[in-house]
Amino acid sequence: MTTNSLSSTAFSLPAETPASQGFSMPAEFAPHKACWMLWPQRPDTWRYGAKPAQQAFVDVASAIADSETVFVGVNDEQYENARNQLPESVRVVELSNNDAWMRDVGPTFLTSPDGHLAMVDWQFNAWGGLEGGLYFPWDKDRRIRSKIAEILGIPRFEVPVVLEGGAIHVDGEGTLITTRECLLNPNRNPGLDQAGMEQVLREYLGVTKVIWLPRGCYRDETDGHVDNLCCFVAPGEVALTWCDDENDPQHAISRQALELLENSTDARGRSLKVHKFTQPGPLHIAEEEASGIDRLNSSYPRQPGDRMAASYVNFYIGNSVVVMPLLDPAHDDDARKRLQALFPDRRVIGVPAREILLGGGNIHCITQQQPSV
């Protein structure tokens, strides 16, 4: 199996795109109808049969359920276990999957001014296919979006472009932020250049301005997803992962991103206000944490001492809550206070999230908001 391949010259957009029909992607801080998640069980991703990770997912789902309806998709063999662990208010649905990263395998929801909901069904190749991807196969993950479209009874716009939800953030007013490291990576869409990708983003997400950051967080195994580095917290305002240590590779990445953001304007011509969030740690995989993971040739290896791409920017914005990862006692309280200042009308809930980080992502990566219409 190979990655999807297309070129910006060969790829032609259909006559009817989401943007041509008035659809666009709302900001995450806009009102939600629900949140979608998946249930972890993969033993080569999650240690000790995913039991520690399952508790972390329960904590995240419970926190978000105070704010909006939460759906958790589960493989059949884990249905009863998930149902018994999750609160009654969380809706558990059978939804076959290869792994639990709903942000990347779930739909990108769209809304229209006349009150309709739709979704974009991107291609998915497990973050790089056979050229750096994290596991094989990913066939069940590829069907999740179409199944959710069936459950909700909404239109589905399928596009032959590989794109994960964690690779993009929007302000809901025409601006999208992403990284070249990910969206222009040849293991996603070989031959699709920046101009071609921007055309896709405009027509399928309804944006008019794309801000390209060079790289994502250091050692991010997703090839630099923007949701671990930078996100919109309000129109004209972003949160940015920060590092003061000049000897840390993250320092140069964050500094480069800051300079670009401070010299950028959004789709409405506003200068961007940047809020810095000092990174946790640095955090590394401990010996006992690595020893609990199954070693398979078809999955990404995690070794003792490996640095993890830990970030406080990887949080979820709900209707009445912001759910943030607790990762480092030295920095957790400061990150919580900064988030509370940015979201004074929402309750900031910290969830111990190291088990999610050990799997390669964090709270934003395991959630996907369904906007209200």
From TrEMBL:
Its EC number is 3.5.3.12. Keywords: Hydrolase. Pfam families: PAD_porph (PF04371). It catalyses: agmatine + H2O = N-carbamoylputrescine + NH4(+). The active site is at C365. GO terms for biological process: putrescine biosynthetic process. InterPro entries: Agmatine_deiminase (IPR017754), Peptidyl-Arg-deiminase_porph (IPR007466). It comes from the Bacteria. One of its GO terms (molecular function) is protein-arginine deiminase activity. Belongs to the agmatine deiminase family. NCBIfam families: agmatine_aguA, PRK13551.1. This is Putative agmatine deiminase. It comes from Aidingimonas halophila. The lineage of its organism: Bacteria, Pseudomonadati, Pseudomonadota, Gammaproteobacteria, Oceanospirillales.
